[in-house]
Amino acid sequence: MNIILFGPPGSGKGTQADLICEKHNLLHISTGDLLRSEIKSKSNFGKGIQEIINTGNLVSDEIIIKLINSAIKKDNDFSGYLFDGFPRNMNQVSLLSKLLKSKDIKIDCVLFLNVDKSILLDRVLHRKEAEGRSDDNEKTFKNRFDVYCKETQPLLQYYKSDNLLREINGIGEIYQINQRINAELETF
Ligand code: AMP
């Protein structure tokens, strides 16, 4: 099974991704995590990325697709992929679809974690205390949310028309949200 996990910043994608991947033996590919590890490793690639992340804008599609490419190139024993935080704009949708086609991989569903904006900022500020992410602050969140609305949210319509979209109520306790996801995935 191959899944795209979709949702605004702070919707709990990372937390739910870990649970889904464990249950279904999927490889978790989070572009945010991949970018943070590039920054940490101080690679050439990583230079300049931190500043972009701190503003809340999107990193270039070229960098993102390179990271995705090398993440799925590696041999693995997983039963599929879970893409978390990718694709984030229409160009990334076409890059992903080309890449998957060349590898004969098909997306089975796009899970959309739907969480009201009023709850998102609280969650992000909470995560700041737990994880210390530099982009988890009110100012950056505002831009991340605007970028999400402008660039990423329109993809929902695209996946809906492809009949891949499954909307999940992302409000509640972690285990409750996970139960909703499990119930949805059982239909596959
Ligand atoms: P995330 O961990 O998904 O919340 O992403 C943190 C930040 O990394 C975002 O605000 C963007 O600056 C960058 N980022 C993550 N994924 C992507 C992507 N698919 N395309 C462009 N930028 C991304």
Structure description:
It is a single chain. The radius of gyration is 16 Å and the shape is globular. By secondary structure, the chain is an alpha/beta fold. 56% of the residues lie in helices and 13% in strands. The chain contains nine helices and five strands; from the N terminus they run βαβαααβαβαααβα. The N and C termini lie close together (9 Å).
Descriptors:
188 residues; alpha/beta; five-stranded parallel β-sheet; 9 helices; globular; binds adenosine monophosphate
Q: How is the topology of this model organized?
A:
Elements: E1 3-6, H1 13-24, E2 26-30, H2 31-40, H3 49-55, H4 61-73, E3 80-84, H5 90-102, E4 109-114, H6 117-131, H7 138-152, H8 154-161, E5 165-169, H9 174-185
Parallel strand pairs: 1-3, 1-4, 2-3, 4-5
Helix pairs in contact: 1-9, 4-5, 6-7
Kindly summarize this structure in a few lines.
The chain is an alpha/beta fold and 188 residues long. 56% of the residues lie in helices and 13% in strands.
